[in-house]
Design brief:
Layout (H helix, E strand, L loop, with lengths): L25 H15 L2 H15 L7 H10 L21 H20 L3 H17 L8 H9 L4 H21 L3 H24 L5 H21 L9 H17 L5 H19 L1
Helix pairs in contact: 1-6, 1-7, 2-7, 3-4, 3-8, 4-5, 4-8, 8-9, 8-11, 9-10, 10-11
Length: 281
C-alpha cells in the first residue's frame, strides 16, 4: 500500500498504541534506549524531557491515548477496571485486521491503567500487546530494554508517559515505513474508539460532571482527523466497516454541535459501544 503522510494534530485522545515495542533500526533502538535511561533518572528529569516528546508527537497524526486519560484524572474520574478489554480476549483475534484493531484497544487500556498507576493491569496490557505485536510479525523490533524500563518505572507515571509515548512514535514509524499503512491506521482507530468508549462509560456514572461531557464533545475534531487518516482504506475490506461505523458517529457529533442534549449523548454512547463491540468480539 502506498505510504500516506498526514500532518497536524487532533484535539484529544488516541492512538496507535501499537506502542511499546518497536524500534526498527539500530539508530532508533539507541534513541529509544537513551530516552528510557532518561526516564529512569527520575521525575524531575522526566519533566525536562516532556517538551521533546511533545515535539516528536506533533509529527504523529493524532495525540496519544494518554491525552484523554490525563483529562479524566484531572476531571476527578476514578479508575474502573472492568471498562477495559479483558486480556483473555486476545485469543479471539485471528485475522490481521482484528489483531491490529485490538492492539490499538489494548494500547488505550494500557495508557488508562498506567495513568492511574495500576501496576498489575499495566503489565497485563503490556503482555497482551506484546503478543499481538509478535503475531503481526513486527517482533524483530521488540526491545527488551523497553519492557524492563517500564517495569522499573511502574510506579512513576511521568516516566511511563515518556517511555510509552516514545514507543507510540516508533511503532507508527515502523509500520508506515514498512508499507503497512493499513495496519497502522487500524491500530490508531482501535485506540481512538477504546479511549472514547472509556470516557463515555464513565459519563454514565458521572452525568453531573460537565468536565467529562466536555471531553466527549471535544473529541469531535479528533474524529474528523481520524476519518481523514482512514480515507485510504475506506473502500477495502480491512477498513470499510469501521470507517462506515465511524462516519455514523461523526453524524451524531455534527447534529449535536458543541452542546449535547441528554438524548444525543445517549445516542453517542450507544453508537460508541456498538463500534467497540464490533472490534473486540
Amino acid at each position: 500500500m502506498k505510504k500516506t503522510k498526514t500532518q497536524g494534530n487532533g484535539i484529544l485522545p488516541i492512538l496507535l498504541a501499537a506502542f511499546l515495542m518497536v524500534s526498527f533500526t539500530s539508530c532508533r533502538n539507541q534513541k529509544a534506549s537513551d530516552k528510557d535511561k532518561t526516564a529512569d533518572a527520575g521525575t524531575e528529569e522526566a519533566y525536562d524531557q516532556k517538551a521533546e516528546v511533545i515535539k516528536e508527537i506533533s509529527e504523529y497524526p493524532l495525540p496519544t491515548s494518554f491525552d484523554v486519560t490525563r483529562l479524566l484524572v484531572e476531571a476527578g474520574a476514578s479508575y474502573i477496571l472492568n471498562l477495559c478489554n479483558p486480556v483473555n480476549n486476545v485469543n479471539r483475534y485471528i485475522s490481521l485486521k482484528s489483531k491490529a484493531l485490538n492492539l490499538g484497544v489494548y494500547g488505550a487500556d494500557l495508557s488508562y491503567a498506567a495513568t492511574y498507576n495500576q501496576a498489575q493491569e499495566t503489565m497485563q496490557y503490556l503482555d497482551v500487546s506484546r503478543e499481538l505485536v509478535e503475531d503481526l510479525e513486527i517482533e524483530a523490533g521488540f526491545n527488551d530494554e523497553l519492557v524492563s524500563s517500564i517495569e522499573r518505572n511502574i510506579d512513576n507515571v511521568d516516566s511511563l508517559i515518556l517511555i510509552i509515548s516514545n514507543s507510540f512514535i516508533n511503532t507508527y514509524e515502523y509500520l508506515a515505513s514498512n508499507e503497512q499503512d493499513d495496519m497502522s491506521i487500524l491500530v490508531m482507530a482501535g485506540s481512538w474508539v477504546e479511549a472514547l468508549y472509556i470516557t463515555t462509560q464513565i459519563s454514565l456514572i458521572s452525568r453531573d460532571n460537565s468536565e467529562i461531557i466536555d471531553i466527549i464533545s471535544n473529541q469531535s475534531s479528533s474524529l474528523d482527523k481520524l476519518l481523514e487518516v482512514m480515507a485510504p482504506i475506506r473502500v477495502i475490506d480491512t477498513g470499510a466497516d469501521i470507517y462506515e461505523a465511524l462516519t455514523g458517529l461523526q453524524e451524531i457529533y455534527q447534529r449535536a454541535g458543541t452542546d449535547f442534549s441528554p438524548k444525543q449523548l445517549d445516542e453517542l454512547i450507544e453508537k460508541t459501544e456498538e463500534i467497540r463491540n464490533m472490534i473486540i468480539t
